[in-house]
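Researcher: Next entry in the queue.
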Amino acid sequence: MNRLADSQSPYLLQHASNPVDWWPWGEEAFDEARRRDVPVLLSVGYASCHWCHVMARESFEDPALAEYLNARFVPVKVDREERPDVDAVYMEAVQAATGQGGWPMTVLMTADGEPFHFGTYYPPEPMSRLPSFRQLLEGVTAAWQERRGEVAEVARRVTTELAGRRMEYRAPAPPGEEELALALGALAGEFDERHGGFGGAPKFPPAMVLEFLLRHHARTGSTQALRIVERTCEAMARGGIYDQLAGGFARYSVDAAWIVPHFEKMLYDNALLARVHLHLWRATGSPLARRVALETADFIVRELGTAEGGFASALDADSETADGDHAEGAAYVWTPEQLRDVLGEAAGAEAAELYGVTADGTFEAGASVLRLPGAAPSEAVRAELLAARRLRPAPERDDKVIAAWNGLAVAALAEIGGCLGRPDLVAAAESAAELLVRVHLDAATGRLTRTSRDGQAGSNAGVLDDYADLAEGLMALYAVTGESAWLATAGELLEVVLTRFAGDDGAFFDTADDAERLIRRPQDPTDGATPAGWTGATGALLSYAAYTGSDRHRRAAERALGVVTALAAGAPRFIGWGLAVAEAALDGPREVAVVGPDDDPATAELHHTALVAIAPGAVVARGEPGAADAPPLLADRPLLDGRPAAYVCRGFVCRRPTTDPGELAAQLG
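Model: Structure for this entry, 669 residues:
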């Protein structure tokens, strides 16, 4: 029976034709397991996951294995991007049991959702110390039938341990100068001086940490913080992790030197990294950072934009090869011969040298990933190669729209468009925001749906990062456009955050208090691939308080920031967004009000000066004097001698208003 055929999830649809009798996550699947007295096999992944595809081809498409699985288990398939709460709860169990995690995630559990066996990818034949998938199923079947008491005891013990993991949070004071300096010192100690970034292989783009370092530099002038950002951003921008032809970043590098990426491209990485490169340009004027910010923004709009105005989640790592198979990176890699075929003998040889394409190859089968170790080829060469590459089969696109990730994209596109004179990017941010408000937000309840596809809302409730990141994006859009409706909607989202996601102790949960009950209510203040919902909400609350003067929102942000104090020195790489928010809080944050007629060039110049200032976490409001829908930040801000003016406040103290963009820049620098 094909139960996945009506799903919105491209990942579930990829498995709809498997001989495995998949069930979607839901009470019906667990009722079926009770009725048949069999365990549940939970398989979690996502549409652009390379090893998910591999396990599907090797095991889930095998009729004999599927027959065995269907007869003895209730198989349940979950898209982790639709249900991050389910993924988080069971991934915690996998990591605790095995010391590692990843996708595909494979968990065996009882009909009550209590897990008793944990793993990730299983091969079709045994390898190293890993059993085959068939051996796993046979072993679990034997244990279930012959040692049920032991299985039940393991499941009970694991569930009890997971359920008891609620954080003891006593809301310490927000981090101050000392804690943020210690965080910088710890990061400097882990910094890869040779290649940039942190740690070894695989190496992930540290977007949230880079944002903290940029804000720390802006507030303190730290050359050490700025050097780490500059080295890392340049290494990534020149490496194989960055698409040298079309722009945009891959998910991570399989090596420590950013040479060979894992080729999937995620919306969230590109939104976060585009914004980081814009902020690096604001701090240094770097032409490379400016180019990468714009190219990445253009990639988001061109390659991930949907017909409804939102942004798709990801591009797959795999694509079709010339012989009809599928292989990772097939759409992107080159041999010297391929370059010569497109460009001619001499130009092809020159391009190979400039792009680091070697006879031996840097990837597989003698192919290389394009890099930019030195001077760049001409734009004509780049365009010719890109045109030739577009003739290759393109990677599949996961075209579901995720509220949180689109919120990050709205923030990036609005800021890049506003700072760099690209109104088309601001318009793209507005279109995405309009889709999210129209399709994802229930106007009657203020509640968000996490995903949509083809303009139709999905069935899964929004989690904390959906509310937090969308509020962040809407406030960034307000700062650029001055449209007060975006700020008002951000306030509505944050009201839900405070009433449904906040604990009495000032902590935040990842799911609402009325969400589906799992074996535990997930709660994690540390960053993953995206900012933690906890610290994302904290940053949004802080900005909203600056716009509105709300003491309630400010106090909630300060209480929640205490978790950063606890983690700043010991684990700064995993609390980067929280450290960035703490920088904004310590800096005020600075509040900038620009008043003047919308059609006055002097208003526009002051507004642009405010947008490109490097004050960490500064909020910017623009409007006509005395506008009825203006936020409190614009209240009682008259023109100055009949001319547009800017007002800068920080820590409840305001500077002298100015009509001079140069003076405004000095006040914000």
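Model: The chain has 25 helices and 19 strands.
Researcher: Noted, moving on.
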